[in-house]
């Protein structure tokens, strides 16, 4: 029974198989028919559209730079701005040939005149090969005819052509050829679809007009505007403001990797040094980004703006440009006067730094170098030297020495020492400029006693002076001095918002006599900026503030000029002196005596000033290490001054440094004190005028408001 049933099932299965195959063939036929119909529809109806799409290339994003932000002084006077320039540009596609660019360059050369100074011999050779193809082939005819394994590559042939071109061939290039070459050289640079400046300096109106009339004959050429940095106050602060790369230069080679890592393009214009470099991320404008779509030939078929361009943000400096201008004139006047007196062969520079000791704002930072050319004195800006050059500062640092003495317990308030020559074995006598007898810490500052500082240093070095005997000093005393001096900003970076700040020279020897020299500012060297931070720290009661050149960052506002504040720089306390308030006030009292007591070393300049000054003078015996190589090592003297005012509520602190001022101590001139006096006088004069103007403005507004109320 079971076998019969199995045979019946098999017979029925064979009957259903053809039916299933027929259904499968029918389904395949329907699907295939649908595909054919769809393909036909696509080709007939949408074929042209898809063909165009297939011929399109990838979308290309192009960025164009925006003007940099402006720089203002604290009173919103423009120090650095942008000057609009007429410009002629060329934008090449990815498929533009050498011959096409040469044709455009030849036409453009008849319309404008460009500089040929940047053309190199290699440029000339490349151009000669391009414009003299038959003659160029003859130079390598033998090599080019080789076949098989002996065949020379095209790159090798080109190298041979370059080597075999002589001056004879290059002299075939005419003045017109060089103009064409200079233009084409600019065309070949940069990226495809990115405008390249052909000419953006000294573009004549007639050139702009002529090119504009013939743009239809010059594919890729356009007439537009560019910008360059403008300095309304000419040389003021020029070295410290820094510089910006040109449109030709793009990213400077020395900063190439740095800027590329930040997403810049190689042809971007950027800050190269100091303020322009330090605040590049603020001053650099926001690029306009445009997306362009090109066809198979590289022609732009459509474009759209992805991001609107925007000018860079503006910097407001702490500098008072009117004060800066006056300070620079004062330096120049005194340098000229000193040189005219004679006896100052090596004198060639002077520095002034002015700070607000309440917040660290730099009010003026000035440096000048003087040179005599053909009987006329010439002055160059050297404001940068206030932070990049260092000198032995002499007695001006004695405030730090006294406070270090207090801190270590070597002396205390009111300690007395006998000022007398010190006779140390195998050493010349070490003494003050006069024997002062028994003096205390105030008199030591007032009259600038060296011996008082020597004996303080001996105590810090855990030693004891014995006449005509050796003076063993604990070498750790050098570290003690340097650690405490660093708390004033001496021998360390001040933290100013600029790159490349110097720290000064730190001596390596630990001979006992050098520790005594350190105590009077004649061993390690410091910068004028460090000296300003040091005296500010004493003036404000012991707070070392970071010197700041930037006060605010503001949005650009073409209509009103000054836009909204986006960032306001706050005072930054780097450290507080680890000394008591009484100890700091004691040194402040000594500094006041320096200027206001008849025995003080600066009394002749400051004794009758109403602005209540305090400070410390300095003279350091040093050795010349300036630009005149034959004079290096010559004994000379540096003179210094640190000061602040008013003594009871300081609002301004200054350092004045004049290195290599004279070679003979007996021929000394008070140039440093004179500069300091004139600078502080000018500060309070300008302040008085500003207050008077503010009062007049308030009275005027009051009268106008009353008149409106009555009406």
TrEMBL record:
Keyword Nucleotide-binding assigned: no
Annotated family: Belongs to the transpeptidase family.
Keyword Cell wall biogenesis/degradation: yes
Cellular localisation: Cell membrane; Membrane
GO BP term, pick one: cell wall organization
Residues annotated as transmembrane: 21-41
Chain residue ranges for the region called Disordered: 688-711
SUPFAM superfamilies, per database record: beta-lactamase/transpeptidase-like (SSF56601), Penicillin binding protein dimerisation domain (SSF56519)
Reaction(s) this enzyme catalyzes, per UniProt: Preferential cleavage: (Ac)2-L-Lys-D-Ala-|-D-Ala. Also transpeptidation of peptidyl-alanyl moieties that are N-acyl substituents of D-alanine
Membrane topology: Single-pass membrane protein
Domain Penicillin-binding protein dimerisation, chain residue ranges per copy: 65-303
All residue ranges annotated as the Penicillin-binding protein transpeptidase domain in the record: 351-675
Superkingdom of this protein's organism: Bacteria
Molecular-function annotations in GO: penicillin binding; peptidoglycan L,D-transpeptidase activity; serine-type D-Ala-D-Ala carboxypeptidase activity
Signal peptide: none
Pathway entry: Cell wall biogenesis; peptidoglycan biosynthesis
Pfam families noted in UniProt: PBP_dimer (PF03717), Transpeptidase (PF00905)
EC numbers: 3.4.16.4
InterPro entries: Beta-lactam/transpept, Beta-lactam/transpept-like, PBP_dimer, PBP_dimer_sf, PCN-bd_Tpept
Protein name stated in the entry: serine-type D-Ala-D-Ala carboxypeptidase
């Amino acid at each position: 029974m079971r076998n019969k049933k199995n045979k019946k099932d098999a017979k029925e299965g064979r009957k259903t198989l053809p039916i299933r195959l027929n259904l499968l063939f029918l389904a395949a036929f329907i699907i295939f028919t649908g595909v054919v119909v769809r393909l036909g529809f696509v080709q007939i109806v949408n074929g042209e559209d898809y063909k165009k799409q297939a011929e399109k290339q990838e979308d290309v994003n192009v960025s164009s730079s925006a003007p940099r932000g402006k720089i203002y002084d604290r009173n919103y006077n423009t120090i650095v701005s942008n000057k609009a320039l007429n410009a002629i540009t060329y934008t090449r596609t990815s498929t533009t040939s050498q011959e096409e660019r040469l044709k455009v360059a030849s036409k453009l050369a008849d319309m404008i005149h460009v500089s040929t100074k940047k053309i190199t011999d290699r440029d000339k050779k490349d151009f000669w090969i391009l414009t003299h193809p038959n003659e160029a082939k003859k130079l390598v005819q033998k090599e080019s005819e080789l076949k098989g394994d002996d065949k020379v590559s095209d790159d090798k042939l080109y190298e041979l052509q370059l080597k075999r071109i002589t001056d004879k061939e290059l002299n075939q290039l005419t003045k017109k050829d060089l103009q064409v070459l200079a233009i084409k050289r600019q065309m070949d640079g940069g990226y495809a679809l990115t405008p390249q400046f052909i000419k953006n300096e000294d573009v004549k109106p007639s050139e702009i007009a002529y090119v504009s009339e013939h743009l239809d004959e010059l594919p890729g050429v356009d007439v537009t505007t560019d910008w360059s940095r403008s300095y309304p106050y000419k040389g003021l602060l020029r070295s410290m403001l820094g510089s910006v790369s040109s449109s030709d230069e793009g990213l400077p080679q020395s900063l190439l990797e740095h800027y590329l890592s930040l997403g810049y393009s190689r042809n971007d214009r950027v800050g190269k040094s100091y303020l322009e470099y330090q605040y590049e991320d603020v001053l650099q404008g926001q690029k306009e980004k445009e997306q362009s779509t090109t066809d198979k030939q590289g022609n732009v078929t459509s474009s759209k703006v992805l991001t609107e361009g925007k000018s860079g943000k503006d910097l407001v400096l702490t500098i008072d440009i009117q004060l800066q201008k006056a300070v620079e004139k004062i330096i120049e006047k005194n340098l000229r006067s000193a040189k005219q007196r004679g006896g100052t062969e090596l004198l060639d520079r002077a520095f002034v730094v002015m700070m607000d000791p309440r917040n660290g704002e730099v009010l003026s930072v000035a440096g000048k170098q003087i040179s005599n050319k053909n009987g006329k004195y010439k002055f160059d800006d050297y404001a940068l030297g206030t932070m990049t050059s260092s000198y032995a500062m002499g007695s001006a640092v004695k405030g730090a020495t006294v406070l270090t003495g207090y801190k270590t317990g070597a002396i205390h308030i009111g300690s007395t020492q006998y000022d007398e020559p010190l006779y140390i074995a195998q050493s010349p006598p070490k003494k003050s400029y006069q024997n002062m007898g028994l003096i205390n810490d105030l008199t030591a500052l007032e009259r600038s006693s060296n011996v008082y500082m020597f004996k303080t240093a001996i105590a810090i070095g855990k030693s004891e002076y014995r006449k005509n005997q050796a003076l063993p000093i604990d070498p750790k005393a050098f570290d003690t001095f340097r650690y405490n001096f660093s708390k004033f900003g001496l021998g360390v970076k001040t933290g100013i918002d600029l790159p490349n700040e110097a720290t000064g020279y730190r001596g390596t020897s630990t001979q006992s006599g050098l520790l005594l020299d350190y105590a009077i500012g004649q061993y390690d060297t410091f910068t004028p900026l460090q000296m300003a931070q040091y005296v500010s720290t004493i003036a404000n009661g012991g707070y070392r503030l970071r010197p700041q050149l930037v006060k605010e960052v503001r949005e650009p506002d073409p209509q009103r000029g000054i836009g909204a504040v986006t960032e306001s720089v706050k005072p930054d306390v780097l450290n507080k002196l680890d000394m008591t308030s009484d100890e700091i006030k004691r040194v402040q009292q000594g500094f006041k005596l320096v200027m206001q007591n008849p025995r003080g070393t600066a009394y002749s300049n400051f004794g009758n000033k109403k602005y209540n000054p305090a400070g410390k003078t300095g003279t350091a015996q040093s050795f010349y290490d300036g630009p005149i190589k034959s004079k290096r090592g010559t004994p000379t003297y540096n003179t210094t001054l640190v000061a602040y005012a008013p003594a009871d509520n300081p609002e301004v602190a200054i350092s004045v440094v004049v290195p290599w001022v004279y070679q003979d101590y007996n021929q000394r001139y008070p140039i440093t004190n004179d500069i300091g006096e004139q600078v502080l006088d000018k500060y309070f004069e300008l302040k008085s005028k500003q207050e008077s103007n503010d009062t007049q403005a308030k009275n005027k507004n009051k009268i106008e408001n009353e008149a409106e109320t009555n009406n």
